[in-house]
Design a protein that fits this description.
Blueprint: E1 2-3, E2 19-29, E3 34-47, E4 61-66, E5 72-77, H1 85-99, E6 106-111, E7 116-121, E8 127-129, H2 137-140, E9 146-148, E10 154-161, E11 169-174, E12 190-195, E13 203-206, E14 214-215, E15 223-233, E16 247-256
Antiparallel strand pairs: 1-16, 2-15, 3-13, 3-14, 3-16, 4-5, 4-8, 6-7, 7-10, 8-9, 11-12, 11-15
Length: about 270
């Protein structure tokens, strides 16, 4: 059972929390006369808090111009976080109020039929500059450029569907195995895939009914004491944990032949 929390003994935890190492006092040993060896993940817990808007993703800037007092052009940098459409709208509304502007100066909503975002301006002539560096426009589905309201309460639909789901599932990789579970044609030591079945901010508790067992012949006749684990997304990118720890329970199975006859290739 491995945990990324430093308080639980994890070492060399990466700044984003996605990678950690463990040094075992008693190394994992698979005897050299083992007939076969398989590995599977029995359980994993991951907090669904990985950001979809962040400075590292270069999608955290928002700039608008308004004629409503205090009039002017405002450029904001959004804090790293896991935003939904409503969450992003709520954050901007709070910023408008803090600036002395109406909370509904610019509202963001969605169209369920097309999965596109809708931006509604309270006042004619106000605008959003989607062409700035690191604009949040990609998450909302807008193309680069400036949109200006021709009338009050004017609605703009995004050019393409919104893309809030940066992460569709989690993968856990480890140097425990050389190959692991291939993702398409890529082997990166993947030991488990974890579907996200909870809302943002909740914990995913993965306990598969049918464990995915995979062959690990490279463990036979070896011992492992220095292990590394990484949390990745479906595109094999390191996934920040927003300061939350994750854990994984691994089982290693092997067969030893105790008979005196011919050793089978792989016992049933």
């Amino acid at each position: 059972m491995f945990n990324s929390d430093a308080a639980a003994g994890a070492t060399n935890v990466s700044p984003d929390g996605s990678m950690f190492q463990v040094s075992l006092n008693s190394p994992i040993k698979i005897p050299k006369d083992a007939v076969d060896c398989t590995v599977g993940v029995l359980q994993a817990s991951v907090w669904n808090t990985s950001p979809n808007i962040a400075a590292d993703y270069k999608n955290n800037a928002f700039e608008f111009t308004t004629s409503v007092a205090p009039a002017g052009t405002y450029s904001w940098v959004l804090p790293d976080g896991l935003y939904s459409l409503d969450g992003l709208n709520s954050y901007l509304a709070g910023q408008f109020v803090n600036t002395g502007l109406p909370s509904n100066l610019i509202t963001i909503s969605g169209d369920s039929a097309t999965q596109k975002s809708i931006v509604t301006f309270l006042t004619s002539g106000d605008s959003i500059n989607w062409a700035i560096v690191n604009s949040v426009r990609g998450v909302l589905g807008f193309a680069a450029g400036v949109i200006t309201a021709p009338s009050a309460n004017y609605r703009f639909f995004s050019d393409s569907p919104a893309q809030f789901n940066r992460i569709n599932s989690y993968l856990i990789a480890s140097n425990l195995v050389a190959s692991g579970i291939p993702v398409n044609n890529v082997s990166r030591g993947i030991i488990s895939t974890i579907p996200i079945d909870v809302s943002p901010g909740s914990q995913v508790n993965y306990s598969p009914t049918n464990v995915i067992w995979f062959d690990a012949p490279d463990l036979i006749g070896t011992q492992r004491s220095n292990l590394q684990f990484s949390l990745l997304d479906q595109n094999l990118r390191a996934t920040p944990t927003a300061g939350d720890a994750y854990s994984v329970t691994v089982m290693i199975r092997y067969h030893s032949y105790l008979g005196t006859g011919v050793i089978p290739v792989k016992p049933a």
